[in-house]
Amino acid sequence: MVDQKYDDMMAHYFADLKEQSSKRLAEAGDLIAKFTTIAASKGLILSADSFEYIQTTGIVAKAQNIARTLLGPIRAERDGLLPFNEIASRFPPSPHYEGCFAGPDFILMAHPCYRRGMHPINNWAPRFIDLFWRFDGPGIERYIALDEDRVRIDVDGPGYFEGDTWHGAPFNEDIQNIKSGIVKLRPPLDLESRHVSFFFADAYCVDIKWSESDGIKSFQALEIKTEKISIEIGGQSYFPARYLHAEFDLAANCFRHFDGAIQYFTEEEYFQRRDADFNMTMKNHAHVKASSSKVFKINGPLKTEDWVELCCHFYTANPLTFEYFSGEYPKHVVETLAKIRNHASKLDGE
To answer: Do 262 and 319 share a domain, yes or no?
Structure first.
């Protein structure tokens, strides 16, 4: 009965969203017609089906490579990333919408991987994209991946705010003293899957590896979600995992490079990799090499505290990252776990 009520509620919710979308698109007829003409001048032929209203984003136009086509010629890195400052020189970062470059007729948006659940219909996950947009400093070069196939066209439309947030972890360890090796972090195994989903952002594990060579300490981290989290690309289902890589210059005593990517595992690759670690190449002849897409890069002198904060927010809402840097979960997670276990022990005692 409860499941039926939930299903009915969700069906009503999605019906309301569809009705709201149709209404907003009808009201924006002149705007859509104007943008269709602009797109046609760039060789993009759009139809009514090319436009969609999304509550968290606004009115978007969809077409393959629409963002790059409207942006115009730009020097891309070998990894496909685009120079942040060069985009910003043409389309200033929006003061009203985080993760956006605003022009007079459309808004370029950051890659959908920065949205909640890495899903394009959701709002931005707190708070990596906001921090990255504002991050700068002497000698810093930023590179970013865009939402290639969508742009927002209601440039004066309202924003969408969600009140929850996430925090960086305190970290006092000297990077120079960190020993090479691997770490695998898992949520507590006594938790039910619903608790892992809610309090650990569906994290199955976080793998970390430090290594050192020629005066450079290298950091790698991979956040693998539970099998509940999957996305579809080109009709194929994948299990996305967030990957981080950084290089610390021992002589300069600072990070010199930091980048992030999304790795896409097939089902077979996913179940092979999630219980392995970064050294699986040496242990297993069936080495898993997932397809990967780079989503940001920072070159230049990066302070440890900035690196830690960006790491924590890239892995937003995941207490395992907080645990790695601080040695413990955030206070609210510790308190919640205590309540869950206390409740479970009372039930066991009945």
So the answer is: yes
Q: Distance between CA 166 and CA 125 in Å, rounded?
A: 9
User: CA 270, CA 227: separation in Å to the nearest integer?
Assistant: 8
3-state helix, strand, coil in the chain (%, to 5): 35, 25, 35
Parallel/antiparallel/unpaired status of strands 216-225 and 100-102? unpaired
Calpha distance 196→224 (Å, rounded): 13
Reduced to 3 states (helix: H, G, I; strand: E, B; else coil), residue 195 is helix
Same domain, 20 and 145: yes
| Euclidean distance between CA atoms 46 and 83, whole angstroms | 28
Q: The domain containing residue 121 runs over which residues? A: 1-152
Whole-prediction pTM: 0.89
Q: Is 160 within a domain?
A: no
Q: Count CB-CB contacts under 10 A for residue 211.
A: 13
Q: Positive or negative CA dihedral for 81, 245, 239, 203?
A: negative
Helices 319-326 and 304-314, axial angle in degrees (round to 10): 160
Instruction: Say if residues 38 and 63 touch (Cβ distance below 8 Å).
Output: no
Q: Does any domain span residue 34?
A: yes
Question: What are the tens digits of pLDDT across the range 23-80?
Answer: 999 999 999 999 999 999 999 999 999 999 998 899 999 999 999 999 999 999 999 9
How do residues 162-177 score in pLDDT, each as one tens digit?
545 555 566 768 999 9
SS (H, E, C) 306-327: HHHHHHHHHCCCCHHHHHHHHC
Does 4 lie in the same domain as 118?
yes
Number of structural domains (the chain) is: 2
Q: Tell me, yes or no, whether 146 and 181 share the same domain.
A: no
